[in-house]
Amino acid sequence: MNFKILSIAAIVVLLANVIHAGDFAGKYDGNNLSIEVTADGAGYSGIIHLGQKQFPLKARDEAGGLRGTFTNDGGEFDFAITRQADGLAFQTAGKSYAVRKAGSDNPFDQEAARAGNAGGAAGGAAGGAIGGGATGGGAVRPAATGGGGGGAVGSMVDYAVVTTTEAGRSLSVFKKVNSVQGAFESVLPDLAAYFDARPKITGAYEDTKTHASGMASFTAKFKDRPIKGFVSCRLNDKGASVAVIYCLADAPPTEWGKLTIPADAKAGPPEVKLQLYEFPDNTGSIGIAEGWRTNAQSGMGAYMITGPAGEELSMGVSYSVVTPNSQAVQLQLQMEANARQWHMPAPNRMQMLVAPFTDPEHALSTLVPQLSAMSQSNGGPAVKIDNLVTVQKLPAWLPGGRAALLSYGVTKTTRQGQQHLRALARVEIDPVLNDSWMVMSNQAAAPDDVFDASLPAMVAMSTSVRENPKVIQEKTRENIDASNKRFAAQQQSHKELMAAYDSYNAAQRHNSVVRSRSNDDFIETIRGVRTVEDTRTGEKTSVDLGHVDHIVDNLNRADPGRFRQIPLRDESDPLPR
User: Fold this and answer.
1) What is the spatial distance between Cα 568 and Cα 520, in angstroms, rounded to a whole number?
2) CA 332 to CA 359: how far, in whole Å?
């Protein structure tokens, strides 16, 4: 069976890495004013429409906004554009003009636009055309209205609305802070005013290598409706670009996808060209990105695709795990106890993973140290994880199972040194028997500095898998038959092993008794006495070893068989019956 990284994986990472506060491309309308902004290489170009006049513009990202010039009759004039809660604030010559993104039919946006345009119209009437008059309309402050993710902005007037849907909203803002923690701490009070109450943080992550980016997940309520969301930030030398994305708690994954990239964005995620790779056993195929390699022989079971910069896409990885109270563990403990009792070398430990059936996050944290030890014993690297966070609980594929999307860091240590990677994985645990279970995982991992750039390729490849159901069904049947034969052989081998072990134990016990009895004979000779017992009364006395035979024979002449010798070997180490 083949498992794929769900699209939610791409969604979650994009929350942290794709939404940028500086994406200003689009068309914006105001009172007698409209602005068209187009991405142009590293900057922007566009046109300002004022009535029937047009003014070409050029701009660049700066401090969470745009700064540039527009031309009029051969002259250049400075301007700045900043994101506001529901559009842009266009500023020039000390004046500000409010505009909103065109083409929106969301009730919340329409309500906000009416309020904003009213202010803009009043300011425009007083201020006149660009370059003259008094100050125009200010920043837009939406009213407390709108469904499915709208809300009173309050202190969030500086936040830009990137995308709004019926189920949620994505916002962006620039914060003048110098740390990920500072960015989160500055956003939380804003969110407390935005939602019904202060949101509850359910997990947090920071890039442990560069400390330049991070993500936190939260839950909250809007008008008593539960929501889930994420706050992500990216630091630069001037501060932090912060994205806030939230959605109704019961919304399907497709709604999160709508919030990931602005609906009017002309450029989607980077296009990844894939080359078809067919598994040699005809179980299916997968697309491989340029520069990536795999020697996978089958789409069934585990296989890995490696990237040009040390990336690793692991598909269909699974492990069998037994619980601490399982029969296998109890057998191992009994064998070790027997060895200690008879002063024998401890038997080799069976190579098995042991952990209670809990949830994917705790299962991974318990199993990774054991997997690391197994890896090192086979000459592989030591593996350690950090910043393990449950990003999202997911539906399990099998009955009784538990699944989640996990984010974490991975440190691999070899003789050549250490390497740290970021990883995103879908992990599912499923019960098998009363005392065993299985963990299945699909993992996308890459070195910290290339993870963001490599993720689209890893997601594209993981979602390109195609299976050949007929061949898989046939091979599954073959695998089951082979598995049954292996199980029967293992059972027979286990019986033979236990019989041999019992025989070995018996021989060792016998040899131990023989050695002890020999030692007893030596000790008795040194002492020079032996015990004689009156079998009728049970009374015992010590008799000189050199005369014990003569003494016992004389005593038994009067009453045959009443007295007997007890050698020290029979007294201290009797032979087992």
Assistant:
1) 6
2) 26
State whether the Cα torsion 524-529-534-540 is positive or negative: negative
| Residues comprising the chain, all counted | 577
Q: Identify the H or E element spanning 319.
A: strand 312-322
Task: Give the Cβ contact number of residue 405 at 10 Å.
Answer: 22
Percent of the chain exceeding pLDDT 70 equals: 79
Residue 6's identity, in one-letter code, is L
pLDDT in tens, 273-283: 899 999 998 88
Structural tokens at position 142: 């939406």
pLDDT of residue 84: 61
Which is higher by pLDDT, 533 or 268?
Answer: 533
Angle at 548 between CA 544 and CA 550, to 5 degrees: 130
R_g (Cα) of the chain, nearest Å: 38
3-state per-residue secondary structure call for 221-270:
EECCEEEEEEEEEEEECCEEEEEEEEEECCCCHHHHHHHHCCCCCCCCCC
Whole-angstrom Cα distance, residue 17 to residue 512? Answer: 69
- Region of 410 (left: φ > 0; alpha: ψ -120 to 50; beta: rest) is beta
CB 83 within 8 A of CB 21: yes
End-to-end alpha-carbon separation of the chain, Å? 57
Which token pair is 79? 């301007």
Whole-angstrom distance, CA of residue 544 vs CA of residue 529: 5
Q: Which two tokens stand for residue 171?
A: 């916002």
State the Cα–Cα distance between residues 63 and 60, nearest whole angstrom: 10
Indicate if the pLDDT at residue 190 is higher than 50: yes
Q: How many helices (H) and strands (E) does the chain have?
A: 10, 27
Give me the residues paired with residue 75 across strands: 72
Token code pair at residue 152: 């009173």
Sheet holding 239-248, edge to edge: 160-164, 168-175, 239-248, 225-236, 213-222, 200-206
Report long-range pairs for 198-204 (Cβ below 8 Å, ≥24 apart).
Answer: 199/229, 202/390, 203/389, 203/390, 203/391, 204/389
69 pLDDT above the threshold of 50 = yes
**Do 444 and 5 form a contact (C-beta atoms < 8 A)?**
yes
Residue 126 has pLDDT above 50, yes or no: no
66 Cβ neighbours under 8 A, 6+ residues apart: 22, 24, 37, 44, 59, 60, 80, 81, 82
pLDDT of residue 103 exceeding 70: no
Average pLDDT over residues 566-573: 88
DSSP 454: H
Q: Does 389 have pLDDT greater than 60? A: yes
The two structure tokens encoding residue 344:
């024998």
pLDDT per position as a tens digit, 435-486: 889 999 999 999 988 988 888 888 888 888 888 888 878 877 776 676 677 6
SS3 80: strand
User: What's the CA gap between 424 and 407, in Å, rounded?
Assistant: 5
Mean pLDDT calculated for residue range 559-577: 87
